[in-house]
Design goal:
The structure is a homodimer. Chain A has about 300 residues and is α/β, with parallel strands linked by helices. Chain A is about 25% helix and about 25% strand.
């Protein structure tokens, strides 16, 4: 498992899997925590193949209820239970998914060993938030209700600068106050400012996941300056009309969103099975935006 | 694709898939026709991997509603539709499966390009029958309702013996009557018997698919003399108690059924993930019944 923030790519296909491409699934590592983004058929096999730890996944985020984005979820949650998971699992998805999972668990007489906690993406703009991570929905424009996800890793608290504290002879029982942002007052009444005794915390980072959607510039304001943008690119420019009709995007359109949002890096994926080689996707996108990665099963894209 | 009757093994895992073992799925070729037996997650990927023709599958037979036997079905039927299938697909399964499929198709706004025809295994003993093939249920003994399948390829009609017809100078317009079993009467009134002018048709063959079940001798009478018996063997003898508790069988128990039913060949499969090597399954079974095959993904077992 890679140490830094990044996205493990598990599936790059659109619609149905082909011999070498699995349906959409991604394991996002951010702030040392794990979120599964979409869960197409075979996701649990892909997680095993790439030796990714099932049990650290705290939430599964499903963009929409087309099968290539969620047919692997029932198998995954069943396997979690067989493995004896006890930790709650959040399912962040359109609400119909709850019934779909429950009817299948009922038919097999399965009592999960852990609790599912559903968050309906139709209702909330902020889907999850704690001290470290915020997940917001990004409303997309697809044939059915579809919401992407904006992950923000909040900037970390300042950390004690041990060397500086040693040099200034700060008593250990004062370190807690320093961490809370207080300055230190010496016995002689002089003050040492907090910034001299602490180090900057981790930088805020943002990752946005946008699939499936037609070209939809309304999302740009939410994507401003994100570190990593995943944007679907089902088609090449030659099939722009087909993209429009099927509510998908071309590589150029994804690049145009990336450019206007001033993102740092763009991942293209969700490729139509009609294309065998994919280099043309990169070429077309790079006419507009330079820092483009073509997704591939097994790849880890750090940010 | 192999020319003769046989079973393509697509998945040999029990419960959840492991790195190298997929959940239950088998493509039965019998009399030139194709039936899918169970459809665990990833079945459509396995069919592609082994270059098996999706579109010739006329029925999917699901033994029971534990996920490792049917979680791949919704993806497969969706892909059939994306590929433009028009031919009706029979789903032979416990009736709850209908609702499970329909709720998922509804959530994704999918209108299939072909019709599904459900046959409820809870209701009927003869699940399908036409001039060539009969499918009967085999009631098994598992934690939920579970029915295996007995396939009978009926003995074929006698075929015209072209050489004999030529030697006896049979007029061509009489061949149809010969095929219907009539004798031929010459102008001089003498009769040539049908058996001299025709060849025996194809021999009747039987294949039985029994999973998941605890040791259940009640099935033996239905399995008498079958050409190929697939019987689950989740456990080795050392875990016989666990087999009993979980309503599964050991390799020895499967072999004992094969022996008593006088079957020609036995396939063992549905192996618990706790076992890495599988040779012990064969060894234990062969103490009781000799003609044993250990299932493996990609294998074709002819009969």
């Amino acid at each position: 498992m890679q140490p830094e923030d990044g996205l493990h790519i598990l599936g790059t296909a659109s619609a149905s899997p082909s011999k070498n491409r699995f349906p959409s699934a991604h394991l996002l590592k951010i702030g040392g925590r794990f979120f599964l983004l979409d869960c197409g058929e075979g996701t649990q096999m892909q997680l095993r193949k790439y030796k990714l730890n099932f049990n650290r996944i705290e939430a599964v985020c499903i963009t929409h209820l087309h099968g290539d984005h969620f047919y692997g979820l029932i198998g995954l949650i069943s396997t979690f239970s067989l493995l004896g998971r006890t930790k709650l699992l959040k399912i962040i998805a359109p609400k119909e998914l709850k019934e779909i999972l429950e009817i299948q668990l009922k038919a097999s007489g399965t009592m999960l060993s852990y609790r599912l906690d559903f968050v309906d993406t139709r209702l909330e703009d902020i889907l999850f938030e704690d001290q470290e991570i915020k997940i917001q929905r990004i409303l997309l424009n697809h044939r059915v209700f579809c919401a992407g996800f904006l992950f923000t890793k909040k900037s970390g608290k300042r950390k004690i600068n041990l060397q500086a504290c040693h040099d200034h002879e700060i008593p250990k029982n004062q370190l807690g106050l320093l961490q809370k942002g207080k300055d230190f007052t010496k016995d002689d009444g002089s003050v040492i400012q907090n910034e001299l005794l602490t180090l900057k915390g981790a930088k805020q980072k943002k990752m946005a996941y946008c699939t499936d959607t037609r070209f939809f510039p309304e999302i740009i304001k939410q994507l401003k300056d994100v570190d990593l943008l995943y944007h679907e690119a089902t088609f090449l420019d030659t099939h722009a009309q087909r993209a429009e009709q099927t509510f998908h995007s071309t590589a150029k359109q994804a690049a145009s969103i990336a450019l206007k949002a001033n993102v740092k890096q763009l991942i293209l994926s969700h490729f139509s099975a009609r294309y065998k080689g994919l280099e043309e996707f990169k070429k077309e996108a790079q006419e507009i935006f330079d820092n483009v990665v073509l997704a591939k099963e097994g790849m880890f894209v750090s940010f």
